[in-house]
Inverse folding.
């Protein structure tokens, strides 16, 4: 898991994309994200709900990515995209049945800054609007935050 002194070597971005099933929109968003030059990008509301569409998205992004599918074509779904120059080893992933959160344990090496791999727990959450549903999700996530070294965006 990442300690705060390791965080200075990586940059993070979080974006609610409000759906990227449309290839043209997805290409525009991915191009904007490439220009932003963040190391790790957290996407919410991807609306990606099939393996075929997930594979299209993985092909369109030039770096490594991890996707958690939505059950609903009009909401939810989260993903984490890594800058192509990073070396990323996924150690484990976990998500909920609704496509609202994705937890990734991974090792990341940024070769432009150092040669050592650092271990991170990345958590990407798309919270529901309903207060009772939001409270329920907070309770679930609280039980999963067992480390002092967690990044939540």
């Amino acid at each position: 898991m990442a300690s705060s002194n390791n965080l200075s070597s990586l940059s993070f971005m979080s974006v609610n994309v409000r759906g990227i099933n449309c290839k043209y929109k997805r290409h525009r968003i991915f191009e904007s994200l490439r220009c932003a030059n963040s190391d790790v990008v957290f996407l919410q509301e991807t609306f990606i709900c099939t393996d075929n569409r997930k594979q299209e998205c993985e092909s369109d992004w030039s770096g490594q990515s991890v996707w958690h599918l939505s059950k609903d074509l009009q909401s939810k779904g989260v993903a984490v995209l890594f800058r192509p120059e990073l070396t990323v080893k996924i150690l484990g992933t976990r998500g909920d049945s609704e496509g609202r959160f994705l937890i990734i344990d991974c090792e990341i090496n940024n070769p432009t800054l150092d040669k050592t791999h650092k271990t991170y727990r990345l958590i990407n959450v798309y919270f529901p609007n309903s207060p009772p549903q939001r409270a329920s999700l907070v309770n679930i996530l609280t039980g999963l935050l067992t480390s002092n070294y967690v990044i939540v965006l």
About this structure: Helices lie at 4-7, 23-36, 51-60, 131-144. The longest strand covers residues 87-95. The radius of gyration is 15 Å. The mean pLDDT is 87.
